[in-house]
Amino acid sequence: MMILPRRHVLRACALALSSLLGVAAPLAGAAAPPQGAPIRVALIESLSGSFANTGEAVFRNIAWAMERVNARGGVALPPAAGGARPLMLVRYDSKGTNEEALSALRAAIDGGARFVMQGNSSATAAALIDAINKHNQREPGKRVVFLNYSAVDPALTNEKCSFWHFRFDAHADMRMAALMEVIREDKALQRAYLIGQDYSFGQAVLREARRQLAAQRPDVAIVGDELHAVGRVKDFAPYAVKIKASGAQAVITGNWGNDLTLLVKAAREVGYDGMFYTFYGNALGAPAALGDAGVGKVVAVADWLPNLPTQGSETFYRAFRERFPSPQDDYVHMRMQLMVEALAQALQQAGSDDPLAVARALEHASVRLYGQAGAMRAQDHQFQQSLVIGVMDRQGAPGVKFDVEGSGYGFRVVRQIAADKAQMPSTCQMQRL
């Protein structure tokens, strides 16, 4: 990949400029614009191809979070480190492949970025971690810190943990354990179908589903267990037919993006009326694809949901909808906001943008936003935060003030799991600097 295309550089500059001027900054009062050189943060994500919608959704979240930081004056550093400096988000398209992601990493480093964000693929995250480990050892003067918002293969903060990698999402085992809080109480469930994407994350989800079902619901028979190619299946009808024919009363899946939307749509079309226990069933077209067939049937686990019954949560969500009024842009994640807050906090505590100093500060990050809070665990760089479980229902039903993507369907919170209950042990043996 070549260095960031000019149109993307201009877009990033426009983003930084709008932030400097206080444009679209609903979460903070106006402050003196930061005058120092921008701190460049690279977003390496699928911005074209099958998962372009997920990449663009992430961009909106992180751009909005940086606008908030810049609107309150940017990152306050000592004069010797440039004084008050804005965050600048620069986009790099990985095109859904590890090879392009690695090329994007090289371009980002050459372009001056020392902080990299990625998340929508655990396989890509693993490749980036390996490349960053080698790069940082080879070129200590150009070290890079990797902030991960969605790649949830448990190995990334266990056997593959790295000093340079920080994960801000709950990993797959944590999410599955949260889902099991509801599955354990679903006494009608006797037969389950497991389906997932055929790469490290999807494999980890199914592996953990088998383990936790055996431990907590040994009475549940697994009547289907299969993996499919990531982002390549255009017609899920054959899978949906098998799910229905199996007699499964529930599907357990970690699918995301179009691989989830097309799966649930196909299930509806063949008349499957069982439950869907999902990691990501609350957004990106899935509720609209299911329609009324999903009411009371789709369960999703998340770090936060718009219908969380707190005033702070509602204020936060309304601010996002004001910033991005199009229903198609309705994809907001609290963890991405907390991640940017943690980066800004670590930069200020480090007193510079030196990646080593910032990484050391990030190990102890503790942030709060609109009543939601989280803290980094230094042992394995796994962010610890509360989780919530939601069930799909019609907008206007009790507990469903807000719908998803203008679909008329939202998620009613049925379980909140505190951070200390959501955490899991780690096998990480990290080498620190």
TrEMBL record:
Coiled coil ranges (UniProt) are: none
Signal peptide positions are 1-24
In terms of domain of life, where is this protein from?
Bacteria
Q: Which SUPFAM superfamilies match?
A: Periplasmic binding protein-like I
What keyword terms does UniProt attach to this protein?
Signal
InterPro entries associated with the record: BCAA_transport, Leu-bd, Peripla_BP_I, TAT_signal
- UniProt cross-references to PROSITE patterns, sorted A to Z: TAT
Q: Which family is annotated?
A: Belongs to the leucine-binding protein family.
Put simply, this protein is called: Transporter signal peptide protein
- Organism per entry: Acidovorax ebreus (strain TPSY)
Q: What is the lineage of its organism?
A: Bacteria, Pseudomonadati, Pseudomonadota, Betaproteobacteria, Burkholderiales
